[in-house]
Amino acid sequence: MDELTAGLFNPFASEEVAPPNSSHWEAKRRLAEAVRQLNDLLVSTVASDAELAQASAQVEALNRTLADTPRLHGTLAYLKSGEHGHYGEINHELNAVGGQSNPLAPGLNMWLDGNRAYGTVRCGLAYEGPPGFVHGGFVAAIFDQFLGMAQVAGGQPGMTGTLTVRYLRPTPLNTELKLSAQLSRAEDRKTLVSGELRAGGEITATAEGLFVRPSRGMAAMAEMAVGNSGQ
Ligand SMILES: CCCCCCCC/C=C\CCCCCCCC(=O)SCCNC(=O)CCNC(=O)[C@H](O)C(C)(C)COP(=O)(O)OP(=O)(O)OC[C@H]1O[C@@H](n2cnc3c(N)ncnc32)[C@H](O)[C@@H]1OP(=O)(O)O
């Protein structure tokens, strides 16, 4: 474990969503929730063209305001600022699948109980693929993140090498989905994790992930990413 992996799992180790660690994240979670609602409203509204044009102008004005505020580009920049918590806390807020403060993320919550990992997630209308059901790419993304966090319990966290998803039946929108996972094997740099996704007690998909700790180590991988986050 290193600076990045130390404490990574802690914020997730609770059945309740871990509360924000500062007023900054509290404020950002509120904004993220408002943007999630905006997403749902955008895909469902059949307002007039004039109303849509007016809404666009309002959002564009807000974007200009936020573009003029101080910004940090990427989780590593947040970590290096020293003001926004440890890596696990920052990832808990900004991760693309699990981040509470990232409106792209459906907001995956997860926790450990013994040697099993559990999680819950709900995907709104913006995640629709087949009519009324979650897009399969998001199901895979949820497994990638969930199994990716579960493998941290094995003590040798790595990057997703291979992820196999078996879609057994469609996964419904606007429904609390339940995840569970267990470590199948952890040897040297490879960790194998398998998991299930359930809706209303029925398994809709299963997955197996093989995670490989990079030969250079995770921290070196992160350093390699500096400059990729846009300015
Ligand atoms: C970016 C910075 C991140 C910072 C993180 C901070 C700490 C957080 C800590 C922990 C949290 C983790 C949370 C993750 C959750 C999200 C998961 C994702 O979405 S990850 C993104 C998608 N995945 C990739 O982009 C991988 C891209 N691929 C690679 O980087 C490399 O190919 C890598 C690391 C997978 C392997 O590279 P090698 O050079 O270290 O591997 P070699 O030495 O060749 O192989 C070692 C063993 O692994 C097998 N192997 C290698 N690649 C494999 C693969 N793709 N599938 C299956 N097996 C593979 C090989 O056959 C070999 O096995 P034999 O020892 O011979 O038995």
UniProtKB/TrEMBL annotation:
<keyword id="KW-0809">Transit peptide</keyword>
<protein>
    <recommendedName>
        <fullName>Acyl-coenzyme A thioesterase THEM4</fullName>
        <ecNumber>3.1.2.2</ecNumber>
    </recommendedName>
</protein>
<keyword id="KW-0053">Apoptosis</keyword>
<keyword id="KW-0472">Membrane</keyword>
<keyword id="KW-0966">Cell projection</keyword>
<keyword id="KW-0276">Fatty acid metabolism</keyword>
<dbReference type="Pfam" id="PF03061">
    <property type="entry name" value="4HBT"/>
</dbReference>
<keyword id="KW-0963">Cytoplasm</keyword>
<dbReference type="GO" id="GO:0016020">
    <property type="term" value="C:membrane"/>
</dbReference>
<dbReference type="GO" id="GO:0006631">
    <property type="term" value="P:fatty acid metabolic process"/>
</dbReference>
<dbReference type="InterPro" id="IPR006683">
    <property type="entry name" value="Thioestr_dom"/>
</dbReference>
<keyword id="KW-1003">Cell membrane</keyword>
<dbReference type="InterPro" id="IPR052365">
    <property type="entry name" value="THEM4/THEM5_acyl-CoA_thioest"/>
</dbReference>
<keyword id="KW-0378">Hydrolase</keyword>
<dbReference type="GO" id="GO:0005737">
    <property type="term" value="C:cytoplasm"/>
</dbReference>
<keyword id="KW-0443">Lipid metabolism</keyword>
<comment type="similarity">
    <text>Belongs to the THEM4/THEM5 thioesterase family.</text>
</comment>
<dbReference type="InterPro" id="IPR029069">
    <property type="entry name" value="HotDog_dom_sf"/>
</dbReference>
<dbReference type="GO" id="GO:0016790">
    <property type="term" value="F:thiolester hydrolase activity"/>
</dbReference>
<feature type="domain" description="Thioesterase">
    <location>
        <begin position="132"/>
        <end position="202"/>
    </location>
</feature>
